[in-house]
Structures are given as structure tokens and as C-alpha cells.
């Protein structure tokens, strides 16, 4: 666990859970073919470790952002970003939940304001980045009142630019609107730099990038990679006030 702005962030890996191969062991995704009971148990293991209720998303590669409000923390909204104003919970004497994003190559982005009052978790995959999910989240955060507070971001482990090979057409399509995503693999074939594109979008929104993981999901055996091991599980980034 580490500090981002005035909040705490953590990225899980494959260790510490109960799922069997090929999902071994801390798979947090229900939608990938794993045993539901094992996933539910893994999610409880994570919640217990961080001593918080966790709000998860039903992620659909959109730019849809949901604000998590008191009384709705048991719901799993269909969206790709969650935003929370911790003050809404504290005012009612309630525990502030952690917000979670699940990934296995996509870019997990966690945001917290300097005061820790506002936090967000974003699923920034190729489609989400093209649809500007980061800009949309920044807009919702500011509308919730975070505008006066400096925002900090942590970019978690994702597939690196050298490993994310795509067709020439796909690279041309994505880099038309996101020139920062242009990349090549080690062999010189077309690739996309999702991490670089996420970083560029955060800076565009005036969000300070305080942490960038250098770990590549495709290259690390400790993380799930959709590209490398299909089917596979999902690890998570969690942010909490
Ligand atoms: Zn890589």
C-alpha cells in the first residue's frame, strides 16, 4: 500500500487467493470463467486485508463514470470509472469504501486529491482511452467539487509498448486521435503505448502523475495478462480515502 495524494492505493497480483489454474490464485474477476465461489472468496480476502468494503465495476470499455454514494456501495455499476467524495460518507458516520478497477493488460489508473477527500478508479484500456474515459472522470471529479484540490494519479501495471503488438490499421486508427500511443515492438512491428497515452491524457487534465508502474503484465509471471494467458484472471488497483 502506498500514498497517492491524501489517499492510499494498492495493486494486487496473482498471490494470496484460492482460485485454481489457470486463474491461480487471486483472481478478482467474475466474468472470466472462474468458479464464482472462489472469486467471491478472493474479493473477501482483499476487503479484509485493506479493512474496507470494496466497490467493483462491471467494466465494458466505455467512458461511463459512476459516482459512489452512501447506501449504494453494495451495487456493482456497469461503467469504467468510479468516483467518490469521502466527505459524503464521513458526514453520515459511515466507513468510506475502497474503489476497485480490474485489469489484465489494460491500464489501471487511480486518482486522489491532495486532501484525500476525492478519489477515482479508472479502467483505461485501448477502447476506454480512445473514448476519453480519463477526461470524463476528471470532468465528474471537478463537478463533484474536486476542482479546487490538486489531483494526483497512480498508473498501475499494464502491457508495455514493446509487448502490445497491433495491426498497422489499428495503430493508425488509435494514433489519429492519440499520437502519444504510437509505438513499435522490439522487432519493429506496429504497437500501442497505452501507458504513455494514459499519462498524456492525465497531464492534459492537469492531473499530476505521481506514480507509474514499470511492470509489464505480459512479461511478469506475477500478474494476469489477457494476451499471454487466455483465459486468465484479473488483478486490481484499489484506492481509498
Ligand atoms: Zn512488455
TrEMBL record:
Family annotation (Gene3D superfamilies): CNF1/YfiH-like putative cysteine hydrolases (3.60.140.10)
Family matches, as InterPro entries: Cu_polyphenol_OxRdtase, Cu_polyphenol_OxRdtase_sf, Cytotoxic_necrot_fac-like_cat
Catalytic activity from the UniProt record: S-methyl-5'-thioadenosine + phosphate = 5-(methylsulfanyl)-alpha-D-ribose 1-phosphate + adenine; adenosine + H2O + H(+) = inosine + NH4(+); adenosine + phosphate = alpha-D-ribose 1-phosphate + adenine; inosine + phosphate = alpha-D-ribose 1-phosphate + hypoxanthine
SUPFAM superfamilies in alphabetical order: CNF1/YfiH-like putative cysteine hydrolases (SSF64438)
Gene Ontology molecular function, alphabetical: copper ion binding; hydrolase activity; S-methyl-5-thioadenosine phosphorylase activity
Domain of life where this protein originates: Bacteria
Keyword vocabulary terms for this entry: Copper, Hydrolase, Metal-binding, Transferase, Zinc
Recorded family membership: Belongs to the purine nucleoside phosphorylase YfiH/LACC1 family.
Protein purpose: Purine nucleoside enzyme that catalyzes the phosphorolysis of adenosine and inosine nucleosides, yielding D-ribose 1-phosphate and the respective free bases, adenine and hypoxanthine. Also catalyzes the phosphorolysis of S-methyl-5'-thioadenosine into adenine and S-methyl-5-thio-alpha-D-ribose 1-phosphate. Also has adenosine deaminase activity.
Name this protein carries in UniProt: Purine nucleoside phosphorylase
GN (gene name): pgeF
Amino acid at each position: 500500500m502506498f500514498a497517492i495524494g491524501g489517499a492510499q492505493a494498492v495493486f494486487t497480483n496473482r498471490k494470496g487467493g484460492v482460485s485454481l489454474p489457470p486463474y491461480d490464485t487471486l483472481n478478482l474477476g467474475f466474468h472470466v470463467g472462474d468458479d464464482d465461489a472462489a472469486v467471491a472468496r478472493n474479493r473477501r480476502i482483499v476487503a479484509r486485508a485493506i479493512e474496507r468494503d470494496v466497490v467493483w465495476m462491471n467494466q465494458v470499455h466505455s467512458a461511463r463514470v459512476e459516482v459512489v454514494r452512501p447506501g449504494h456501495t453494495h451495487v456493482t455499476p456497469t461503467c469504467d470509472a468510479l468516483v467518490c467524495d469521502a466527505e459524503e460518507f464521513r458526514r453520515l458516520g459511515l466507513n468510506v469504501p475502497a474503489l476497485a478497477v480490474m485489469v489484465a493488460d489494460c491500464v489501471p489508473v487511480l486518482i486522489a486529491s491532495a486532501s484525500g477527500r476525492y478519489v477515482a478508479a479508472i479502467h483505461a484500456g485501448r477502447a476506454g482511452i480512445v473514448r476519453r474515459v480519463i477526461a470524463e472522470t476528471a470532468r465528474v471529479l471537478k463537478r463533484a467539487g474536486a476542482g479546487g484540490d490538486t489531483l494526483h494519479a497512480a498508473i498501475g501495471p499494464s502491457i508495455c509498448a514493446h509487448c502490445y503488438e497491433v495491426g498497422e490499421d489499428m495503430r493508425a486508427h488509435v494514433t489519429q486521435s492519440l499520437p502519444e500511443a504510437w509505438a513499435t515492438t522490439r522487432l519493429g512491428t506496429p504497437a500501442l503505448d497505452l501507458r504513455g497515452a494514459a499519462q498524456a491524457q492525465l497531464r492534459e487534465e492537469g492531473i499530476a502523475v505521481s506514480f507509474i508502474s514499470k511492470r509489464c503484465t505480459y512479461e511478469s509471471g506475477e500478474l494476469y495478462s489477457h494476451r499471454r494467458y487466455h483465459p486468465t484472471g484479473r488483478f486490481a488497483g484499489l484506492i481509498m480515502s
